């Protein structure tokens, strides 16, 4: 690759590229790493051949990210060796990793929000003390990369103006600009819309074709099956298996991940909806900048049914949950059990919503569901702390009672470890979510609002959470489920509504919802695929499908 | 009010605004790199004392300048050590720096000079004397332009011209050089700098050192330019007003010039007209002194655009995934 603009550093990196015939691009030998008493990685060995995509799959906390952080020089392994392109290459820091041709795309992007794309790209690899020549060179190089790999971004846009998908492209471009030929992606699709994810996979495919080596860390089985050549499974810090993707199945991988068979589909009986619990009419919400986020929503949920709200994140689902949960104001009507509730926030808040039988499992459990530094038992009573059952007398709370109550609830909800006195932050994502669920579900609410119930939750816990939600439904609760995971919506809901741009584009029974039809609605489109879904009501706002 | 008076007030505003400008640019470097610095006051005070003391002993203002900047930088280093290396709370470290400077200067001044915590009066080469720009004498009687040139632009000490020159230099360094790009990046998102293989710690220390130099120059100017020697607490809150100006200027160098000169002008007006009689009401001097803070509160409340501080400001950088 002889580019006119290649830098000195770049040339050195290119010189180091030459991989001996047959040698793996990356080879880890017996990597171990402990944090205190926790063994995050235990004797891990792995070989990745050049020009392939290697998936690493495992539950949360299985040690995937630790392993990659070692490879990128963030952590130092306690034992083991890293070999890159057939050579023993110690990686003490990120600089060494970059020099070895490794680029990393983190789950949380390392971009400077108010810098332009170009400025972010050249940060750290400027050609000289002055910026102008570096920026000009990067602009040229960016154009070439964009054409070669379908990586289009406007070089002069600031990062905060870009969509998440485009920000991720900037991260990939950063790595490529640094002449990386080994690319590590940590949970890359977690923040992407389905269309963006598809585009990402096309990019990865292009990169593979150009001979780049890619490591894809994920906990989504579908992605592994779709794009990888080989896959390693990690469980509790150990590598349990490495297999060729073509020779395995999602079921086998799932089993390897959790060590036992899991049900990927929820078994549930047909819903038997009763009286109407929630009625929403013409609900609108404006954000603090005066932008309308909900544009006249109508919906009803009856007792004993789950209404799933599907849609790409940011189309008003969060605002819907917030206004129903009582911490955003809006206009329109909300009736719960036939009784109208106040939306202006003057006579109503989260507390009064709870009194009316609305429980809420918020989308962002770290921000709204828990106080991470507080113990599990303290978290267990938030929002219900005024409950007489928790008071010893008019001044003092019955802490001992709450602790023992929490211990029982933790057993029932299989929270591990079941120790009420541990701070919430020391539980894994799935167990934190179970604490929130236990708090909200055990109140037997008439209406449960659930946002992203299994985000960042491992497969074992997902199964448990899904089961609990179905049980609550069978007890006669109405459930409003918001999720960006289409699979989750499809397997849990009885009825589905699809949101786009603050409106409900269509709603109908889950049985007749097709993948493509829902995909169209999520993009705000009508068309034949949508009209073909039996029993669905489609909004007039859904645009007729675009002609190609 | 005739034109000559206006020029006089503006001239006074420039002189009073200069230490604010230097301190403000000092704070700009530090805060743009993500280190909040309320210790500007202490650094200026330390510089004022050491420059006054050394200039008094040696009779050389330039040696005074070196000593003053050295004193300021030593405090900058303390702040750096506390907030960068030991990841302490930057506000507490800044307050400590201010207390340290406040007590230390008076104590040592008393011990060295026995003049009640002040340094001896400076004269001659011990001070930075006003520089008369070429031709100022010749044109001073030309109306308006001549008056402005001779009385407003000419006749300041070298440090005033340095301070003004620092504005475009700061802008250029921040927005046109590699160092500036990295400095701004480390104040916005140190992780992005770290993953790019650049040392967050070294960058931040560099920024803090520059802050030490500029705040030092501000203090030196107080003791050897504006006044003739160090007196107890002579910074009189200028470090805080400079911080207010920094917010007012939204952490940008050119607006920093405007903000500090505006605050200098307010001070100049209140010095000349302690009580402003508006007919209905008489504004006391305290009101004028409070105006910079009132303006800053208005800015912070978001009435005039949003003042968004560097995103990583105030947070120690802990390496994590």
From TrEMBL, chain A:
Question: A cellular component term (GO) from this record?
Answer: plasma membrane
PROSITE patterns documented for this protein:
ABC_TRANSPORTER_1, ABC_TRANSPORTER_2
**Keyword Nucleotide-binding listed:** yes
The record, for InterPro entries, names: AAA+_ATPase, ABC_carbohydrate_import_ATPase, ABC_transporter-like_ATP-bd, ABC_transporter-like_CS, P-loop_NTPase
Q: Which Gene3D superfamilies match?
A: P-loop containing nucleotide triphosphate hydrolases (3.40.50.300)
Q: Which family does it belong to?
A: Belongs to the ABC transporter superfamily.
Please state what the protein is called: Monosacharide ABC transporter ATP-binding protein
Which species is the source of this protein? Thioclava atlantica
Q: What is the lineage of its organism?
A: Bacteria, Pseudomonadati, Pseudomonadota, Alphaproteobacteria, Rhodobacterales
From TrEMBL, chain B:
Transmembrane segment boundaries: 12-30, 42-59, 91-113, 158-175, 205-228, 278-304
Entry annotated with the keyword Transmembrane helix:
yes
This protein's source sits in the domain of life called Bacteria
Please name the InterPro entries in this protein's record: ABC_transp_permease
Q: Could you state a single Gene Ontology molecular function term?
A: transmembrane transporter activity
What are the record's GO terms for cellular component? plasma membrane
Answer yes or no on keyword Thylakoid: no
Entry's localization field: Cell membrane
Where is this protein chiefly located?
membrane
Give the bilayer topology.
Answer: Multi-pass membrane protein
Q: Which UniProt keywords apply?
A: Cell membrane, Membrane, Transmembrane, Transmembrane helix
Record-given protein name: Inner-membrane translocator
Q: Identify the species of origin.
A: Thioclava atlantica
């Amino acid at each position: 690759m002889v580019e006119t603009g290649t830098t000195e550093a770049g040339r050195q990196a290119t010189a180091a590229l030459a991989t001996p015939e047959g040698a793996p691009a990356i080879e880890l030998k017996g990597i171990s790493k402990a944090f205190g008493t926790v063994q995050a990685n235990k004797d891990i060995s792995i070989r990745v051949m050049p020009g392939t995509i290697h998936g690493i799959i495992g539950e949360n906390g299985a040690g995937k990210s630790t392993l990659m952080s070692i490879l990128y020089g963030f952590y130092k392994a306690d034992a083991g060796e890293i070999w890159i392109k057939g050579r023993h290459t110690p990686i003490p820091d990120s600089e060494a990793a970059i020099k070895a041709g490794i680029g990393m795309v983190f789950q949380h992007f390392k971009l400077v929000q108010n810098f332009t794309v170009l400025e972010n790209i050249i940060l750290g690899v400027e050609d000289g003390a002055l910026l102008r020549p570096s920026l000009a060179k990067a602009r040229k190089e960016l154009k070439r990369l964009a054409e070669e790999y379908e990586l289009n971004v406007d070089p002069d846009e600031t990062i905060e103006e870009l969509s998440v998908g485009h920000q991720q492209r900037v991260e990939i471009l950063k790595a490529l600009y640094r002449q990386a030929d080994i690319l590590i992606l940590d949970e890359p699709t977690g923040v992407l819309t389905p269309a963006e994810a598809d585009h990402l996979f096309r990019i990865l495919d292009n990169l593979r074709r150009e001979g780049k080596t890619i490591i894809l860390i994920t906990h989504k089985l579908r992605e592994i099956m779709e794009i990888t050549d080989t896959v390693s499974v990690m469980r509790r810090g150990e590598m349990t298996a490495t297999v060729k993707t073509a020779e395995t199945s999602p079921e086998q991988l799932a089993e390897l991940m959790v060590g036992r068979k899991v049900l990927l589909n929820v078994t549930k009986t047909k819903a038997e909806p009763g009286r109407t619990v929630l009625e929403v009419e013409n609900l609108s919400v404006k954000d603090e900048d005066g932008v309308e986020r909900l544009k006249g929503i109508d919906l009803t949920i009856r007792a004993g049914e789950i209404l799933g709200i599907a849609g790409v994140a940011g189309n008003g689902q969060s605002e819907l949950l917030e206004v129903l949960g009582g911490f955003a104001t809006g206009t329109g009507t909300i009736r719960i059990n036939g009784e109208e509730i106040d939306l202006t926030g003057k006579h109503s808040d989260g507390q009064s919503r709870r009194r009316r039988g609305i429980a809420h499992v918020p989308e962002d459990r770290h921000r709204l569901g828990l106080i991470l530094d507080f113990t599990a038992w303290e978290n267990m009573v938030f929002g219900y702390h005024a409950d007489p059952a928790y008071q010893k007398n008019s001044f003092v709370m019955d802490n001992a009672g709450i602790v023992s109550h929490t211990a029982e609830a933790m057993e029932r909800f299989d929270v591990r470890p079941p120790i009420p006195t541990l701070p919430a932050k020391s539980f894994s994502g799935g167990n934190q979510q179970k604490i929130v669920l236990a708090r909200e579900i055990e109140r037997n609410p008439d209406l449960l609002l659930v946002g992203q119930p299994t985000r960042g939750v491992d497969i074992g816990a997902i199964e448990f959470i899904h089961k609990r939600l179905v049980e609550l439904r069978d007890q006669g609760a109405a459930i409003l489920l918001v999720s960006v995971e289409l699979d989750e919506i499809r397997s849990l809901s009885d009825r589905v509504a699809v949101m786009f741009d603050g409106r409900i584009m269509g709603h109908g029974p889950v049985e007749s919802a097709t993948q493509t039809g829902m995909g169209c609605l999520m993009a705000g489109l009508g068309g034949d695929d949508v009209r073909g879904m039996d029993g669905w009501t489609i909004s007039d706002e859904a645009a007729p499908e675009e002609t190609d | 009010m005739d034109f000559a008076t206006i020029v006089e007030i503006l001239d006074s505003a420039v002189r009073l605004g200069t230490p604010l400008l230097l301190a403000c640019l000092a704070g700009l470097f530090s805060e743009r790199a993500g280190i909040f610095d309320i210790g500007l006051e202490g650094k200026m005070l330390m510089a004022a004392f050491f420059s006054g003391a050394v200039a008094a002993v040696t009779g050389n203002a330039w040696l005074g300048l070196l000593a003053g900047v050295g004193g300021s930088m030593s405090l900058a280093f303390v702040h750096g050590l506390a907030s960068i290396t030991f990841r302490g709370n930057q506000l507490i470290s800044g307050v400590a720096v201010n207390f340290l400077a406040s007590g230390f200067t008076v104590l040592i001044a008393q011990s060295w000079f026995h003049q009640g915590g002040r340094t001896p009066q400076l004269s001659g080469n011990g001070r930075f004397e006003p520089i008369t720009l070429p031709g100022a004498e010749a044109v001073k009687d030309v109306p308006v332009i001549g008056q402005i040139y001779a009385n407003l632009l000419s006749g300041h000490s070298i440090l005033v011209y340095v301070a003004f020159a620092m504005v475009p230099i700061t802008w250029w360094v921040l927005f046109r050089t590699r160092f500036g790009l990295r400095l701004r990046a480390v104040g916005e998102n140190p992780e992005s700098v770290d993953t790019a293989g650049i040392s967050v710690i070294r960058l931040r220390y560099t920024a803090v050192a520059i802050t030490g130099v500029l705040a030092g120059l501000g203090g030196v100017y107080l003791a050897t330019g504006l006044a003739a020697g160090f007196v107890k607490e002579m910074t009189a809150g200028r470090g805080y007003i400079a911080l207010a100006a920094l917010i007012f200027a939204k952490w940008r160098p050119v607006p920093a010039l405007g903000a500090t000169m505006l605050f200098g002008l307010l001070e100049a007006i209140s010095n000349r007209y302690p009580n402003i009689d508006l007919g209905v009401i008489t504004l006391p001097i305290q009101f004028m002194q409070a105006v910079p803070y009132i303006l800053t509160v208005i800015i912070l409340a978001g009435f005039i655009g949003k003042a968004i501080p560097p995103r990583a400001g105030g947070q120690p950088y802990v390496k994590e995934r």
